[in-house]
Amino acid sequence: MPSAENQSTGGLNGIRIGRVAAPLREQVLEALRNAILNFDLKPGERLVERELIERIGVSRTTIREVLRELTAEGLVMVIPQKGAVVYAPSAEEAKDLYAVRAALEALAVRRFIERAPDEKMDALRDTLEEMRAIHAAGDDTAAMLRAKDHFYAVLLDGAESPTIQGILAGVQARVRLLRATSLSHPGRTAEVLVEMEALVDAITARDVDRAIRLCDEHLGNAMATGIKALGASAV
Predict the structure, then answer these.
(1) What residue spans in the chain does CATH classification 1.10.10.10 cover?
(2) Number of other residues whose CB lies within 10 A of the CB of residue 123
(3) Which residues contact 224 (CB under 8 A, 6 or more apart)?
(4) Residue 131 and residue 145: Cα distance in Å, rounded?
(5) What backbone torsions phi and psi does residue 87 show, to the nearest 5 degrees?
């Protein structure tokens, strides 16, 4: 990912906002969130209100509300003398986020194995089939990201822990950005599929120790790849 420090809203040319499917503010929020997660808007890129208004074709009020929401999610930062920019985690910040994610996901895996009935085990296997189909179709990073989101949604649902869900919600957007960063690295989706196959096998076998070990290995690999990609974006 090339450096975007001096760019501004250059990745918005493809955004088209409708007028009927959902409230306008929600459409803009979803469009900008996806632009960040798909790296159409690069880490560190400035988000200039005037340019956003002109490119997307909505009011200043809508843009300001959306930027406030993205700031609350952690995908946008407001920097003095510079304004709103896309969140660009340092290597140290990324390591801390991965550590938080590893601890919470290991606990979610443990609780899922302890609490999930067989039908939720089947639902988890179905998410793996979704990942396999995406990989077979040609390594679509955005599609794989959605499939992994589905995997974690099923995992958290089966873990039946509002506490884990609540804590993860506070860092979810930044965790998803790191996930997208890792998946964007060439060849990573194939590695992810192998890792997730082993993890799902361990979970559905209700082997807690092996599942947690594989979860840690998967996140360790994701961290190494993600931090490498973050470093490349700063070059």
Answers:
(1) 24-86
(2) 18
(3) none
(4) 9
(5) -55, 130
The answer to whether the Cα torsion of 232, 176, 59, 57 is positive or negative is positive
Provide the whole-model pTM. 0.79
Token pair of 16 as six digits? 């088209």
- Say which residues have a Cβ less than 8 Å from residue 225's Cβ, sequence separation at least 6: 182, 185, 188
C-alpha span between 27 and 21 (Å, rounded): 8
Question: What is the CATH T-level fold of the domain 24-86, as seen in this structure?
Answer: Arc Repressor Mutant, subunit A (1.10.10)
Burial of 23 (0-12, 13-18, 19+ CB in 10 A): exposed
CATH number of 91-233: 1.20.120.530
pLDDT digits (tens, 9 = 90+) for 111-160: 999 999 999 999 999 999 999 999 999 868 888 989 999 999 999 999 99
Give the N- to C-terminal CA distance of the chain in Å, as an integer.
Answer: 9
Element (H, E) at 83: strand 83-86
Structure token digits, residue 43: 């880490």
Intervals of CATH 1.20.120.530 along the chain: 91-233
